[in-house]
């Protein structure tokens, strides 16, 4: 008795795929895509649809290989054109990623958030930014978890507020130029003092007086509203200011004879810089020695100038004469000695030729 093996109809099993899912009219539709291609398509990097879709087919369940019914497609999308439906699902659907891909995306976004935090914060003691590795370590210490559905910038601002509760860290100040009419200038300075802003320079000449200041970005909106009420102008000179040296020459007018004390980190950086310069000097000396050795003729035991002169030296009679002496294990001669020796040999040859 023969046994008939029944195969399921309408199933195409796919493995190692990225699934994009879309729910519409209470029904679920899925498409099978190549891994790491969906995001490239949505960002506009990938233009070829065949490089994204593994098949122009709409499924109700990709993992089980169950195809979507045409009646369901017409009911949900109004037509049963699989290619057009695949494009709509590819654009609006939710991407289902595997564990390793998800970990890779979260790790990349964690790094992006740490980079934004590093750019927007400074160490209040040294007025310098933290390193990226230190920022990541601090983020791990506060047990920060990345939200893949939220923007990196928004999460970075949340991280900064959370880090300020536990560690000495603050927002790097913004540098602004504020200009108002002379009568309202004292009101502006009073408000800047209340915001603990650092006044870099002032210009009190003319009808409109201006000030360049550095303030916490958290007061930017209030400062903008104040300048508008005072009918003034505001210009953003730098979004993030880090300590790079003297901000203004007037800050050190009273301390000409006393050099400012450097923070420990700055002193360390100067030591590293001096070591780097010393290593560079040694390397340059070695390079000069190497260059000198390259332009030295070992046969004649003499230094020759540039590369062209060095090549011409090998064609000279002096080098050829010393080369003959070298084969006889005789010491090399200088150019003058060589010339005299060659004249002596020529004279001996002439005497030998005319001798009877």
TrEMBL record:
Residues 16-102 form the Ribosome maturation protein SDO1/SBDS N-terminal domain. Residues 174-237 form the Ribosome maturation protein SDO1/SBDS C-terminal domain. It holds the Pfam family SBDS_N. It comes from the Eukaryota. Keywords: Cytoplasm, Nucleus, Ribosome biogenesis. The keyword Transferase does not apply. Residues 111-171 form the Ribosome maturation protein SDO1/SBDS central domain. It is found in: Cytoplasm; Nucleus. The keyword Nucleus applies. GO terms for cellular component: cytoplasm; nucleus. GO terms for biological process: cytosolic ribosome assembly. InterPro entries: Ribosome_mat_SBDS_CS, Ribosome_mat_SBDS_N_sf, Sdo1/SBDS, Sdo1/SBDS-like, SDO1/SBDS_C, SDO1/SBDS_central, Sdo1/SBDS_central_sf, SDO1/SBDS_N. Belongs to the SDO1/SBDS family. NCBIfam families: RNA_SBDS. Associates with the 60S ribosomal subunit. This is U1-type domain-containing protein. It comes from Populus trichocarpa (Western balsam poplar). The lineage of its organism: Eukaryota, Viridiplantae, Streptophyta, Embryophyta, Tracheophyta.
